[in-house]
Every structure is written in structure tokens, then in C-alpha cells.
Amino acid sequence: QVQLAESGGGLVQAGESVRLSCAASGRAFGNYHVAWFRQVPGREREPLVRIRWIGTATYVKDYADSVKGRFTASRDHRVDTVYLQMDGLQPEDTAVYFCAADESYYGTRASDWTYWGQGTQVTVSS
User: Fold this and answer.
1) d(CA 106, CA 62)
2) Contact between 124 and 95 (Cβ < 8 Å)
3) What is the mean pLDDT of each run of 10 residues along the chain (126 residues)?
4) What is the CA radius of gyration of the chain?
5) Which end of the chain, N or C, is surrounded by fewer C-beta atoms within 10 Å?
């Protein structure tokens, strides 16, 4: 079992930045794929970035077009934490942000990811 806990959300003004953290505990996490999703009420979870493990402390990042150039994901395997730096936030970025992890799956379907955090709310005011 892997437990994930997101933190860092809050209320910000348009144009500001936020950094989210996703801390993992439980089983060895280093060789898990990780992803960030977000969700607004009434809509499916939207994949933002997937961090695919391909070897010892080596990862490949795949960004959704909607956040490419504004959001940056990083991973510190020494502390089993994944980050999402979000710059230039806009009101349409308001959502609950989730991190997910899986030993084998690294696609875009939220339903196929095994482990999830509880989510953290990010609200961007205009």
C-alpha cells in the first residue's frame, strides 16, 4: 500500500503561483509512476502531468497541452515527494488537485490509477 497526501493548495489571485506537494508513505515509492490530476464539480478528473519511472531515479514527464509551459512537475526521490509548480494561475485553474500513483499504469485514465491522495483545493480569484 502507498499513502499519498497532497498539500499546498489555497486561495490565490490570478497571475500568482502555487506549489503543491504530494508526500508518499508506505511501500517503496521510487519506482512508481506518479501523476497530477485536477477536478471541478461535475467533470471528470483531468490529467495534468504524468511522471513515468523508467529506471533508477530516472523519470519522463508528459504534460497535458492545457498546462504545458505553465506547470512544472518535479520529484525528489530522496524524500518520496512529488511537486507541482503552477505559475500564471487563472480562474479556470480553480479545482481540486490530486496526485496519483501506480506501479505499472501511467496513462491518462484516472480510473486506472491505483493510489490517490485526498486532494487539495486551489482557488484562483480574478
Assistant:
1) 10
2) no
3) 95 98 88 96 96 86 95 92 97 98 94 97 97
4) 14
5) N
